[in-house]
Amino acid sequence: MSSQPSATADETAVSGAREPVIELRDVAFGYTATPVVEDVSLSVQNGEYVAVVGPNGSGKSTLMQLMLGLLEPDTGAARLFGEPAHSFDDGGRLGYVAQHASASKEMPITVREVVKMGRFPHVGFGRLSSRDWAIVDDALDTVGMSAFAGRRITQLSGGQRQRAFIARALASEAELLVLDEPTVGVDVESVQAFYGLLESLNERGITVLLIEHDLGAVTDNADRVVCLNREVYFDGPTAEFVESDALAHAFGTAANFLGGSE
Amino acid sequence: MTGVLAPVLLQSQSNETLDTLLGPMYWLLEQWAGLLGWVAREAGIGMLSYGFMQRGILVGLCIGVMAPLIGTFLVHRQLALIGDALAHTAFAGVAVGLFLNAVIDLGVTPYLTAVVVAMIAALFIELISEVTDAYNDVSMAIVLSTGFALGTTLITINAGGMTVSVEQYLFGNLSTVTSQSAAILLVLFGIIVGMVALTRNQLLYVTFDETAARVSGIPVNWYNRIMVMLTALVVVGAMQIMGVILVAAMLVVPVAGASQVARSFNESLLVSIVLAELSVLLGIAISYQIGATAGGVIVLCGVGIYTVAVAFGKLKTKYGDQEVPEMGSIDVTDDDTTATVWTDEADGRDAATDD
Questions:
Q1: Residue A150 and residue B327: Cβ atoms within 8 Å?
Q2: Residues of B (307-326) whose Cβ lies below 8 Å from A
Q3: What is the CATH number of domain B2-249?
Q4: Å from A210 to nearest chain B CA?
Q5: Domain range for residue A85?
Q6: B11-58 pLDDT, tens per residue?
């Protein structure tokens, strides 16, 4: 929507400073009595490239769901673009990419139809206008998938599929891109290209939040690292994270595998 | 005195109101009968000149559109079983209707009580899944058995006063489709097609990727509720000629066939409707010739068509276009349409990162 950026600019003018894209204050959440995440306070500013790392079961995905408003914190507050995350409904500003590479849904649907869904928050019950379709085709072009537009998504490789899902987020003109372990099951060359794409999108001003357990990918790409294991063990620039011993604390002593994967 | 009169009044009143409401549908039915009568005379097809056949074919054609339409969304969410579960609870609804008719002489068609009971069951299934975060086949199987058990119990309690055979509800019957039930079906047809046409974007998103749909601001639970309610409507509508036991087949078989040959989602919707209509028309014609129950023959035709579709799909993958297109490079710089949107964000970026 072309009206969106100007609206954001107006808000900025009124409030004087940009609101953080994501803000968590003393957030705790548990599916049972035992909390999965606890005492988490952090904020992500517009244009940042943040990676959340932690061992399996550390609450990374739960934290992401809290940030996106899919879960409501037991205590504390989660805000998205300045609104309570749980009631935030301007879905066009969010792009979400999950571990789809391993999904094996046999649904007949083409790449273009998947990318088209990115426009749904903007068109509601209506039809896509020619401008909407132009944005869809443009997004496909950006991720280099134009030639695959008419292919069934189930026939694609993991890497190609993830590109399609990125294109869907682009088509929604998302300001915040949230990726939950996006490269699981994706071949090595595609992973390289994939992080290259994230990098350039971030340079274009999109806020990127990456949930990862592949530490190599994180240290090579993200500007800021949040290391989580129920609580936040480290939150700061990537370079400091590499030198710190936060990793050993969060992952336990046996985890000396910087650059490797689990 | 009034205790005896009230049900009688209620009966005539409710039927009259219903018939007034269904007025336009009766008009449509007349037009349809006129059309088929004309075709029967011109083409010399005797079976089309009977009133029950004309209604049966119309009902069949409507089912051929709405069942695969809803079925497509169900099958691709691995919810094929829900149609079966709702059909069996609809049978309980039929039993409730027959029971009420016998006890207080309510005088409404059991299909209406079936609609109500099936919709309640549909909501119940949906609420269970919202609480437990998953549709599971165990709870579905429980609802299915409960519905059927309730139905048989009610019918046998009432067996003394009731002469109506339940066979037509179990197996369906083309020749007993009354004008009233055909008119009700036309209303259901309108509701279902209208709702799907309106909410197709949201239903597609929820079907394909529920979490992403939630993130994009779609109230997923509401669309799931709409979906199960529509399923209940389809099931009851289709029950008239398909019967409780075979109704789920119309939701599943044409869709399964279509996903073998279709590439896109829109194509699969269209193909599944075409396949369903083929089975309906073929099934009705054959059942008329051999004097069998239409429901069974329609399903057999559907399965036959499905088998052909599978074979066709295999051939298509084997001899079809095998060349893999060149993957383009990732190119974020020369964007023209979307670039304007992000330049605004890029400005505030430097200031924002030094947190």
A1: no
A2: 325-326
A3: 1.10.3470.10
A4: 16
A5: 19-251
A6: 555 667 777 777 888 888 888 888 888 887 777 777 777 778 888 889
